[in-house]
Amino acid sequence: MAVWSIVKYSELGIDGRIDPEFYRPGYLTKRAKIEKANHVLIGDIAFVSDGIHMSPDWVEEGGVPCYSAKHVKDNHFVLYEFGRISEKQNKSNKKTWLKEGDVLLTSVGTIGNCAVVRDYILPANIDRHVGFIRLNEDSPISPYYLSTFLNSNLGRFQTLRLATGNVQLNLFIDKMITIAVPVSDQSEEIAIATEKAYDLFDVSRSLLAEAEGMLLDELGLSNLELPKAKWNVRNFSETRTEERIDAEYYLPRYYAIFDVLNKKGCSRLNEIADVPIKRRFKAEKGEICNYVEISDIDVSNGSAEYTERPFEELPANAKLRFKGGELIISKVRPTRGAIAVLPSLGNKAVCSGAFTMAEIESPLREVVMVWLRSEYGKMLLERPCTGGQYPTITDNDVENVLIPNLSEPVAEQISAKVRESHSARAEAKRLLETAKRKVEEMILEGK
After folding, report:
1. CB of 334 closer than 8 Å to CB of 381
2. Which CATH architecture has domain 37-183?
3. Into which CATH architecture does domain 218-417 fall?
4. Model pTM score
5. Which of 209, 214, 242, 275 is nearest to 404 (CA)?
6. Strands 288-292 and 307-310: what pairing?
7. Which of 215, 253, 367, 428 could form a disulfide with 226 if both were Cys (CB 3.0 to 4.6 A apart)?
8. C-alpha span between 346 and 288 (Å, rounded)
């Protein structure tokens, strides 16, 4: 396979790009395929801009969510750890107010992730690391088709090719508008399938919220007002038992949760699950392994992705072999909620040693997952944390975390909603992958 191209000076185009990466043979082949097909340029069918360029005016209460590149993924959003800008700054940047149907495109760092704005993330604004594409009313394509195209190989090669920079890539507006998008009789079919996938993501998200609501209602935590006091008085004997003297460990809000759990009944995780599971992982050089690390956990829904890597390229912390069905809990920054049930990925499946892995049967497995991902469960994981900017907990901390005891019917209902949520999400992902393949077949194979 050729890794070089010969390009005439007259073919450099208006950009005058002379960097060899711009003229990779694969890029030129794909570009020629798109240009041969019926296509439009984004700048001809849409208004394109990016987000707020000034420094964000963050506020702790109120304000408006401001999303960045890390929140936009492949046809979905991960809405976690976003800041809120002041109402004043938001009102002074009306041009970047998001609207339903806008297509967001990451333009700094990880280039080319794309998703369609839905009403559940609104109102919201964006920073300068995200571009938005607002299609004209007479646009020949749907935002859902555009998003799937941009997430496909035919879209990503263009966003990467047009990006500039060394240490950190940037995709500027004047390059976004030159992206070529093929249009065919299949465009509408692809758009419909993509929108259906988004609808299934909505269903999945609603089911998880219902499961958590059911759990908190059962415990009487739905309307619990936690003490806001930042001080507490405890006996010295308790500090000796706990072997902790840091004030944060004894905040009143933790004791308010303990009171509820003690009244309703609770167990430590190691009383209801096999934890921690320490299956050592072994493989041979050259074998392809399925690896799950902390960044593979979608904290917005508790799903686990994975990457395929040769054994010799696995990080040193790839230690825990899993079969599928185990519950993993991140010991690093546990308040993020990186907690998930592992999928079945074959004999060469391994996850990071930064997780505590537990084996627990349904319906308790889903109950534990929902509880530890809830506001109150994450507080219980927060309490034993040590460290400042990079707080961590230990396996011992996880196995001793308190889990509420629920009646079997309630536990079954919660488990059923979680399983249904995961099924809806899996079907959504299947639809999106199929849609992307159709985009690529439509152009590369002339279908």
Report:
1. yes
2. Alpha-Beta Complex (3.90)
3. Alpha-Beta Complex (3.90)
4. 0.89
5. 214
6. antiparallel
7. 253
8. 11
| Helical packing angle, 252-264 and 187-219, nearest 10° | 80
Tokens at 365, concatenated = 């497995």
Query: What stretch(es) of the chain map to CATH 3.90.220.20?
Result: 37-183, 218-417
**What sign for the dihedral angle of Cα 64, 69, 74, 75?**
positive
Residue with tokens 């990457």: 307
Please, are residues 367 and 403 in contact by the beta-carbon 8 Å criterion?
yes
CB 186 within 8 A of CB 442: yes
- Cβ atoms of 132 and 122 within 8 Å: the answer is no
> How many residues are present in the chain?
447
In the numeric block, which tokens belong to residue 349? 């499946």
Question: Hey, what are 60's tokens?
Answer: 């702790």
Token output for 310: 């040769």
Q: Amino acid identity, residue 41?
A: L
* Helices of type H across 326-373: 364-373
Q: In terms of DSSP bridges, do strands 355-358 and 402-404 run parallel, antiparallel, or are they unpaired?
A: unpaired
Chunk the chain into consecutive blocks of 10 residues (it has 447) and report each block's average pLDDT, rounded to whole numbers: 63 64 75 86 96 93 94 91 93 95 94 96 95 96 97 93 85 94 93 97 95 95 85 82 86 93 95 94 90 91 91 92 95 94 91 96 96 96 89 96 96 97 95 94 74
The residues with which 320 forms a beta bridge, in sequence order, are 280, 351
